[in-house]
Amino acid sequence: MAKVKQHTREPLFHITKRTEVPLKSSVLVRTIAIVLALIVCGIVTKLFTGDNPISIYKTIIHGAIGSGRFLVTIHELALLLCVSLAVTPAFRMKFWNIGAEGQVLIGCLSTAMCMFYLGGKVPEGLLILIMTCMAILAGAIWGVIPAFFKANWGTNETLFTLMMNYVAIQLIEYFLKIADKSGSNVVGPNLLSHGWFPRLFGQNYILNILIVVVITVLIYIYLNFTKHGYEISVVGESENTARYIGINVKKVVIRTMALSGAICGIAGLLLVGGSSHSIDSNLADGRGFTAIMVSWLAKFNPITMVLTALLIVFLERGADEVSSMFGLNADFAEILTGIILFFIIGCEFFINYKINFTHKKTEEVKEGK
Fold first, then answer.
1. What is the distance between the alpha carbons of residues 171 and 280, in angstroms, rounded to a whole number?
2. What is the pLDDT of residues 57-78, one digit of tens each?
3. Staple 140 to which of 41, 55, 235, 258, CB 3.0 to 4.6 Å?
4. 21: left (phi over 0), alpha (psi -120 to 50) or beta
5. Rounded to an integer, what distance in angstroms lies between the CA atom of residue 248 and that of residue 229?
6. 172-189: b or e for each residue (b if 16 or more CB lie within 10 Å)?
7. What's the chain's Rg over C-alpha atoms?
């Protein structure tokens, strides 16, 4: 038996998951990511437009919280947060609900139909109550349909919920053609003149905001301090474990998606009855997809979602102001938003994982003769 030195190749580095990250470290990493993002945005702005980056940053802040804009920003935050809260129970269960956009639109459609067909025929208070019930019911049904097929036949929920978005869009297009013969593709306040949410403290959006605050608190309690929330977590960790301890997985899947759809229906109610008083197929404005990012960045924590949703809305509102003030193409504002979000999302990797560098080692191996 002779000992022979043999060089073994090892990777330059390997990635390991961090077991626990101190709060100070995670805050520091996120702060560095935002600073780097702003620096890159400044460089890109200077190279491609010649404008002063500092002026653009000031415009972003003014566009989000400037004079007369603060309440609108908070209202946009509330709407995005509502949809984000809706997808969170399903995501905790690892049911990938990509259909929030369609569930919101169905809530919009049911609300608009109540306003269109019952407006002026029943008292305003009763009309708002009917709108609320129908929006919740419609959203819940739209959520239950893919959940039923997933629970019973194992269908792909991602594709199923995504395709139902397009079904919801076509249903709205059909309603628009029936309700408005002019072909404007929008049913506006002149046709939806009843069922508007009342003003509070002389402001239009306060009731919407208060409703979302209540939903945020209730969802936080539901997910963290109730039996249903516990069952959602267990099913998300392992369906086999859930079955072993006696949890009815099919029931949990259907019940959770009914809840997600119902909250999306409420978001549709707030959009039509509480703010726009109109409906078209673009009314959801991509919130169903943006909510996925908000929920994921907050690690499915409803309280943390307030901050992540605020960040997204702040950037979007600021980017719109930059486009109008500097006469830039709207796509350039989206580029700035994308750069900042790229750094924010990318920093999550360094929070959750650690890069370990290795070196080549010489090992002695025994060779038999």
1. 11
2. 888 788 888 877 889 999 999 9
3. 258
4. beta
5. 14
6. beebbeebbeeeeebbee
7. 25
pLDDT tens for 85-97 read 999 999 999 999 9
Tokens of 119: 């407006």
Q: List the domains of the chain with CATH numbers.
A: 1-49+328-369 (no CATH), 69-326 (1.10.3470.10)
Model confidence over 273-304: pLDDT tens digits? Answer: 999 999 999 999 899 999 999 998 888 999 99
**Residue 84 token pair:** 């984000």
Which tokens hold the place of 35?
A: 């600073």
Distance CA 291, CA 273 (A): 21
Amino acid letter for position 300: F
Q: Distance between CA 27 and CA 44 in Å, rounded?
A: 26
* CA–CA separation, 177 and 276 (whole Å): 19
Q: What Å distances lie between residue 76 and 83, 271, 351, CA to CA?
A: 11, 10, 29
Q: What pLDDT does residue 10 have?
A: 67
One-letter amino acid identity for 214? V
Tokens for 125? 């208070």
Residue for token digits 């038999």? 368
Q: What is the chain's mean pLDDT, rounded?
A: 88
Q: 139 is written with which tokens?
A: 């959203």
Burial of 2 (0-12, 13-18, 19+ CB in 10 A): exposed
d(CA 112, CA 188): 10
140 or 341, which is more confident: 140
Q: Which residues lie across from 357 on neighbouring strands?
A: 13
How many angstroms separate the CA atoms of 286 and 273, rounded? Answer: 19
Packing angle of the helix pair 53-65, 302-326 (nearest 10 deg): 120
**8 A C-beta contact, residue 149 and residue 160:** yes
- Location of structure tokens 């030195």: 5
Cβ-Cβ contacts under 8 Å for 313 (sequence gap 6 or more):
64, 73, 76, 77, 80
Q: How far apart are CA 234 and CA 329, in angstroms?
A: 47
Contacts 24+ apart (CB under 8 A), 223-226: 223/88, 223/89, 223/92, 223/300, 223/302
